[in-house]
Amino acid sequence: MVDDAPEQNPPGDEPSSDASDKPAKQKKKGNFWKELPVLILVAFGLAIGIQIFLGRVYMIPSESMETTLHGCTDCYGDRVLVDKVTFRFTDPAPGDVIVFRGPPSWQNDFVSAEPGNPISQGLSWLGSLVGLPSANEEDFVKRVIAVGGQTVKCCDDQNRVTVDGKPLDEPYKHFDEGTPAEQESFEELKIPDGMLFVLGDNRNHSCDSRCQGQGGLNGLVPVGDVIGKARVIVLPPSRWGGVSDHDPQIVSMGAPGWQENVPLGLGIVGAWPLLLLGRRVRDRFRR
């Protein structure tokens, strides 16, 4: 005679969810602490790789780019994201706000003594990951005004910088309150190929190609010393936004008639065949 009653496990053999879950939870917890150092190393590795090859955050420590970039005394200096990729494929152009290594003839007034102990050096390096300047960092931020092959001079009868004899359109130009809105003049200078003439937007509160290395050829910046292009203000939140790269030569060189309309023209040309194709497809479906 067969007993159809279901088998019952002895009390000691019954599965216990609490007993089975506890080792699994402990194992997961233990795995997390083992993996944490690896995750930290990977994060730092990615941060370093991104800053070397793609982009980096820089702090603006001076007033030379007011009001485009804040670095004024007693205020929170802007942190800007600098694109390191663009200039791998093209050279800086007039209007670009660039970060570059100071040439030997340039002097940076914001360089301080190198930290003496390893802990301070480590903290300085960590700070550089979020845009705090390193003690021995000699990088500058200025705007490109003229490039190789062009001739720059200041000023014309309306106190404007000229390139190849034509005045520039500079809406970003700034003069400190209480100071005359007049630019310091400089002699005509032909820019050699591979060099850049740069100025600060705070026109009379910036030591740039006019005065660094006593001006002239010594004040120029080699294209090879350019680190990247300032793209976005990331801190403080109240200043979030893009960094203007208005080309000051566009209006003066008479280019807007065709250059500014190129994107619209290309859009129309590209949209026309798509419109015709769409009509043909629609007519076939109707049939």
UniProtKB/TrEMBL annotation:
One function term, GO molecular function aspect: signal peptidase activity
UniProt keyword terms in alphabetical order: Hydrolase, Membrane, Protease, Transmembrane, Transmembrane helix
UniProt xrefs under InterPro entries: LexA/Signal_pep-like_sf, Pept_S26A_signal_pept_1, Pept_S26A_signal_pept_1_CS, Peptidase_S26
Enzyme superclass (EC): hydrolase
One Gene Ontology CC term in the entry: plasma membrane
Pfam families listed in its UniProt record: Peptidase_S26 (PF10502)
Broad class of where this protein is predominantly found: membrane
Active site: 64, 142
Subcellular localization, as worded in the UniProt entry: Cell membrane; Membrane
Record has Transferase as a keyword: no
NCBIfam families assigned to the protein according to its UniProt record, in alphabetical order: sigpep_I_bact
Protein name in UniProt: Signal peptidase I
Organism: Lentzea flaviverrucosa
Taxon lineage: Bacteria, Bacillati, Actinomycetota, Actinomycetes, Pseudonocardiales
